[in-house]
């Protein structure tokens, strides 16, 4: 299905959620970072204010901020109704103790993105692009983060996952992907095969527990450190 604003449900997470989802340290935040499939998250805006170096990629960024904002506001009630209907699938604790808090945190994050988007687009911090092909140079980043896209959607298929992760390994020295569960709460069937393939090339691929759990059971990320032999040769 072609990417259109009408068939996407924008849902952005906060800077603090990113830090916990990916177990980011201060050293990590000082690296050059790629946020892949970031959507309307606040991570780019907040990290930039803190002096960080980040580029976010998402097909959403092909649209002007006014249209993105309108789509966020249009989709928001539907998402909240779905959360309410499936409340038992989530872990309600600080800093998200209830549905009302979730709504405040996520809408605040998305509005932070909307406010930052025009300037960030001009600065090249937001790039309209999508996996499995990114308009980025080899090993342009020290760290790539992919939130709530890979492994979450079973319908993307095994080949897409393999190609997408290969592309992330091309543009970054280290990759972290969260979560490892599908929308139905089961661990992705693609995970074991992908780990085996990465390890066969000499890369280090391991499942790491993180200090974040909102979708029940989703508290692990895949951390990939690309093998030195796979790194581009300096010219």
List the SSEs and their pairings.
Layout: H1 15-21, H2 26-29, E1 32-36, H3 43-49, E2 53-57, H4 65-85, H5 99-123, E3 126-127, E4 141-147, H6 158-171, E5 172-178, H7 191-200, E6 204-209, E7 220-225
Parallel strand pairs: 1-2, 1-4, 2-3, 4-5
Antiparallel strand pairs: 5-7, 6-7
Characterize the structure shown.
One of its GO terms (molecular function) is methyltransferase activity. One of its GO terms (biological process) is methylation. Helix 6 (158-171) links the parallel strand 4 and strand 5. The protein is an alpha/beta fold. The chain has seven helices and seven strands, in the order H-H-E-H-E-H-H-E-E-H-E-H-E-E. Helix 3 crosses helix 5 and helix 4 packs antiparallel against helix 5. The model has no long low-confidence stretch (mean pLDDT 94).
């Amino acid at each position: 299905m072609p990417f259109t604003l009408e068939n996407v449900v924008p849902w952005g997470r906060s800077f603090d959620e990113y830090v916990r989802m990916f177990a980011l340290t201060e050293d990590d935040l000082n690296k050059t970072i790629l946020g892949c499939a970031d959507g309307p998250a606040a991570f780019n805006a907040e990290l930039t204010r803190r002096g960080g170096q980040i580029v976010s990629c998402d097909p959403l960024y092909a649209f002007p901020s006014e249209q993105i904002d309108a789509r966020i506001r249009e989709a928001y009630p539907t998402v909240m109704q779905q959360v309410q209907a499936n409340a038992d699938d989530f872990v309600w604790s600080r800093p998200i103790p209830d549905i009302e808090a979730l709504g405040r945190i996520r809408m605040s994050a998305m509005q932070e993105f909307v406010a930052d988007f025009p300037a960030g687009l001009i600065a090249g911090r937001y790039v309209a692009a999508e996996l499995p092909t990114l308009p980025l140079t080899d090993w342009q980043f020290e760290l790539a983060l992919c939130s709530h896209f890979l492994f979450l959607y079973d319908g993307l298929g095994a080949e897409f996952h393999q190609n997408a992760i290969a592309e992330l390994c091309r543009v970054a020295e280290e990759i972290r992907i969260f979560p490892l569960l599908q929308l139905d709460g089961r661990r992705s069937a693609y995970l074991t095969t992908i780990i085996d393939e990465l390890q066969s090339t000499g890369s280090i691929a391991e499942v790491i527990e993180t200090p974040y759990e909102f979708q029940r059971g989703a508290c692990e990320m895949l951390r990939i450190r690309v093998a030195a032999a796979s790194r581009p040769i300096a010219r």
